[in-house]
Specification:
Oligomer: single chain
Largest sheet: none
Radius of gyration: 18 Å
Length: 184
């Protein structure tokens, strides 16, 4: 039980830790009026546990993993080789899990790149807020480090979920999703 609580605490810490290159002050100045209005910003904040709109290390949360899982499950129906892997038992399931992990990382790269591209332009992430959320002096290497940080954050979250499932109490991914929902 204590192990699960410790992992959840680390998860919440990473959800509040800003990605390098993000102007936290500008984020807070734009976020407060947006959340006061409610609407889509409140919904996004709810499902990400406050991490996505703050551009934190764990901003993408568990969603790339869930998306990858759904895609792999759908592909097992369409691709005969994946269906055969599913029927092989534990070894096949382990291989499908590995494919899900790879797809999760690929989706995290795509999602973090898109999200950072939106956040770089003033007024695009938070309508009506014309502040630079990402520091202007950041070059291509800074952007790449931000994408790498958010992608690594997703991989760490995936690992946290597996650790909780293996050594903790309950299904790790479900507990992390629950933690995101309760956090806001």
């Amino acid at each position: 039980m204590l192990f699960t609580v410790a992992i959840i605490a680390l998860f919440r810490f990473g959800s509040q830790l800003p990605t390098p290159g993000v102007d936290s002050g500008a984020i807070q100045r734009c976020l407060e009026p947006a959340l006061a209005q409610g609407g889509i910003y409140g919904l996004i904040n709810l499902f990400s546990g406050g991490a996505l709109l703050q551009l934190s290390v764990f901003a993408l949360g568990i969603m790339p993993y869930i998306t990858a899982s759904i895609i792999i499950q759908l592909l097992t129906v369409v691709i005969p080789r994946l269906e055969a892997l599913k029927k092989e038992g534990q070894a096949g399931t382990a291989r499908l899990t590995q494919y899900t992990r790879y797809l999760t990382v690929a989706l995290a790269v795509l999602q973090s790149t898109a999200f950072i591209a939106i956040a770089r332009e003033p007024g695009r992430l938070f309508q009506g807020c014309n502040e630079f959320l990402i520091r202007e002096e950041i070059g291509i290497w800074g952007i790449l480090s931000m994408v790498l940080t958010m992608t690594a954050g997703t991989a760490v979250i995936m690992w946290f979920g597996e650790l909780i499932t293996d050594r903790g109490v309950g299904n790790g991914m479900s507990l992390l999703i629950f933690t995101q929902l309760v956090a806001t």
